[in-house]
Design a protein that fits this description.
With 240 residues, this protein is of the alpha/beta class. It has a single domain, classed as Vaccinia Virus protein VP39 (Rossmann fold), CATH 3.40.50. The chain contains 7 helices and 11 strands. A 7-stranded mixed β-sheet has the order 6-5-4-7-8-11-10, sandwiched between helices. The model has no long low-confidence stretch (mean pLDDT 95). The structure holds zinc ion. Zinc ion binds next to loops.
């Protein structure tokens, strides 16, 4: 049960420790994750929701600007299509995609964020639901956006099953997450601001992400490399 969620290997080596949290690296595939992994309930408690709500979202204007910029770069993948932002927060990327011609949905576990999104962007469709509940709706999409979400997820297999379940054959998935193999990451990884348990419970490299995606029928077709920012940004395609 403490096996590596990417390769199912059970041999792990100590990687780093921060506060009371212990990160290990899988001896077989190198994946870095918290062990023990906190329960879903414990992780949910981490997310203090009170900053968000109807009419309240920190830095809403600059978020909207950045969301429009992001959406412009991905426009060919969602124009005239069904798109979803998984972990949509206040709905900025979903709204940007809608303005640029997508039929959109936004999903988030945070009640405050979804309350904000519904009020600020009444033409969008927003859902405050678990992956399991949303999956049961049977909706599928041509384009999935999921930015800075996967590193927070305690059960990464459940998350990938969800993404795979809502992706139509040939769908594109744009996903971003911190890149622990990036040259700008400090040698002492505990000094890296992305090394932040229990908010971030696992950290990927291009290799571990590629392997995980492959197990759920996603092939990475494009990598957006940022020289100065330790981020993995990839476009993947769901196999037919
Ligand atoms: Zn592994």
């Amino acid at each position: 049960m403490d096996a590596c969620p990417i390769c199912d290997g059970v041999q792990t080596a100590f990687f780093a420790r921060q506060d009371d949290y212990n990160f290990v690296a899988c001896r077989s595939c190198g994946f870095v994750f918290l062990l023990p992994m906190p329960s879903a309930e414990a992780l949910a408690e981490v997310y203090d929701d009170e900053a968000f709500g109807v009419g309240r979202y920190p830095k809403a204007k600059s978020r909207m600007r950045r969301a429009m910029f992001r959406a412009l770069g991905l426009w060919p993948y969602f124009f005239g299509k069904d798109a979803i932002d998984v972990g949509c927060g206040g709905g900025f990327v979903a709204e940007s995609m809608r303005r640029l011609g997508a039929r959109v949905a936004g999903l988030d576990i945070s009640p405050g964020s979804i309350a904000y999104a519904k009020h600020a962007f009444p033409r969008g469709r927003f859902f405050e639901e678990t992956f399991e509940t949303f999956l049961a709706r049977g909706e599928t999409f041509d384009f999935i956006h999921s930015s800075e979400v996967i590193e927070h997820i305690g059960d990464v297999k459940e998350y990938m099953t969800f993404l795979s379940g809502i992706a139509r054959p040939g769908a594109r998935l744009f996903l971003t997450t911190p890149d622990i193999a990036h040259p700008t990451v400090p040698k002492d990884v505990t000094k890296w601001d992305m090394f932040a348990p229990p908010r971030h419970v696992q950290l990927f490299t291009e290799a571990t992400l590629t392997r995980l995606f492959d197990a759920y029928a996603f092939d990475i077709v494009k990598r957006y490399y940022k020289k100065n920012a330790p981020t993995l940004q990839v476009l993947a395609r769901k196999r037919d």
